[in-house]
Amino acid sequence: MHTHLGPLDFDVPRVDDGELLGQLREPRTLVAIASAAIAIFGDSELGNAQMALAAASGHVAGLHGYVVADPTDLDSCTDQLRRYLDAPGVLGVKVHGEWSRTPTASRAMTDLFDLLARYGRPVKIHNTGDGWDEALGAIARRHPRLPIVVAHGGLGAPSIEGARLAASTDNVRLEFSSSFANLATVREAVAIAGPERILWGSDAPLLEPAFVLGTYHDSGLAPDAIDRVFWSNATELYGL
């Protein structure tokens, strides 16, 4: 539930939208939810249009999409949510606080989540800024029926703060994709949050899915929790 449509201005493989699922071989992935990198990095209108096209043509095969919501432009964001959120294959919303330079604790982020709560669709947020966990906890309690996913489980890497947030709220979940395995932290986070609050996310093609898979395999998840983390938690959350 954490992948991207290119192009990506990094030293990573170039993957056409229609080939993304085919590239996710380890582990073999049947469903992926992607946000458009162009929308995150500067042009939400162009990127969200790209995402909607990819989801419309790919959702039957398993490729779905997120609308990227820009907290710095609520008028444009509102228009794009209306246009794309109910389009075929579109399952939720992606918010990137770091690239939009909008701390989670800012008023702009609170206003954005007030808007997103009207739709009630799952929101995956890349957090940034001091006090992000307390701020997101306040947002989660303000909108208890809005599903929220903490991208990377913290500020770009798994964190105890993210795990405690998931454990103390009914509507917050985590995924652990990161360039940094942080295994001791991941193991503690699993123990705190519990497998019912954890989702599989790879951040492909920015990251190699097999590397992130190793983090999950070394996380201390019990064998009977594997199906939950890699499948049923997400199918329930996203209505698949």
What does this structure look like?
By secondary structure, the chain is an alpha/beta fold. It has one domain (3-238): TIM Barrel (Alpha-Beta Barrel). It is 41% helix and 14% strand. It has ten helices and eight strands. Strands 1-2-3-4-5-6-7-8 form an eight-stranded parallel sheet. Helix 7 runs parallel beside helix 8 (183-193). It is globular and about 40 Å long. The model has no long low-confidence stretch (mean pLDDT 95).
Characteristic key phrases:
TIM Barrel, alpha/beta, 41% helix, 8-stranded parallel β-sheet
Write the layout of secondary structure elements.
Layout: E1 3-5, H1 20-23, E2 32-36, H2 37-41, H3 44-58, E3 63-68, H4 74-84, E4 90-96, H5 107-117, E5 123-126, H6 132-142, E6 148-150, H7 160-168, E7 172-175, H8 183-193, E8 198-199, H9 209-217, H10 226-238
Parallel strand pairs: 1-2, 2-3, 3-4, 4-5, 5-6, 6-7, 7-8
- Which CATH-level-2 architecture? Alpha-Beta Barrel
CATH class, named: Alpha Beta
Order of helices and strands: EHEHHEHEHEHEHEHEHH
**What is the strand content?**
5-15%
What's the number of structural domains?
1
**What general form does the structure show?**
globular
Biggest sheet statistics: 8 strands, parallel
Binned, the helix content reads 40-55%
Oligomer: single chain
* Uncertain stretches: none
Gyration radius, in Å: 16 Å
CATH H-level superfamily title: Metal-dependent hydrolases
Strands ordered across the widest β-sheet: 1-2-3-4-5-6-7-8
Number of strands: 8
What's the overall average pLDDT, rounded? 95
Alpha plus pi helix count: 10
Estimated structural class: alpha/beta
Terminal Cα span: 12 Å
Looking at the structure, the CATH topology is TIM Barrel
